[in-house]
Amino acid sequence: MNFKHLLIIGFAIAIISIGFVSAADDDVSILSALDITPFSKDTTVTIDGIDFNVPKGYGEQEDIRKENDTLSVGNMEVTLSNYQYLNEDGDLLNLQVIFAKDKNFTTESLNPDEDGFAKKTINDTEGFYSESDGVATFLYAQDGKSVQITGNADILSKVIYFFFFFF
Fold first, then answer.
1. Per-residue model confidence as pLDDT tens digits over 113-141
2. Bridging pattern class, strands 59-60 and 76-86
3. 85 close to 92: Cβ distance less than 8 angstroms
4. CA-wise closest residue to 4 among 111, 106, 149
5. Is the pLDDT reported for residue 109 higher than 50?
6. pTM for this one?
7. What is the DSSP letter of 163?
8. How many whole angstroms separate alpha carbon 42 and alpha carbon 31?
9. Which residues contact 92 (CB under 8 A, 6 or more apart)?
10. Quick count: other Cβ atoms within 10 Å of Cβ 47?
11. Mean per-residue pLDDT for 89-98?
């Protein structure tokens, strides 16, 4: 399987949703215009068995959620779940989990050969990090799944749980 295809899928979904945000009227609250209710406190969201912390003030764009969509990437069939959240400032948080039936993803197997990705550890989670214009992507493996978080660089460490929360 070519890992570039998985990255392209993730980035394409994120770019499409950013278009929705930029189309919102500046005189109307972004969340109100999109009928999104923000969380009143930090909230645990579980996607395909992976827990994320969605910070207070973000709300889900439920109408563009992808949940367990099956796609063919090369000769491999993968299942993709993609959730997107916005806050009042229009900041996007994209959470994506990919599972392949016959593949157990590990950090080593995710090694993106895309320019700009570097090894990084966030909250005891090893993965690959890329940042451009304040928007960061962190890619890692957990429970045999590929996990990708995209959002403002300062929010990523708030989304990824420390491993000691699982015990």
1. 767 899 999 999 999 999 998 899 999 99
2. antiparallel
3. yes
4. 111
5. yes
6. 0.79
7. G
8. 17
9. 14, 17, 18, 21, 84, 85, 86, 135, 150, 151
10. 18
11. 94
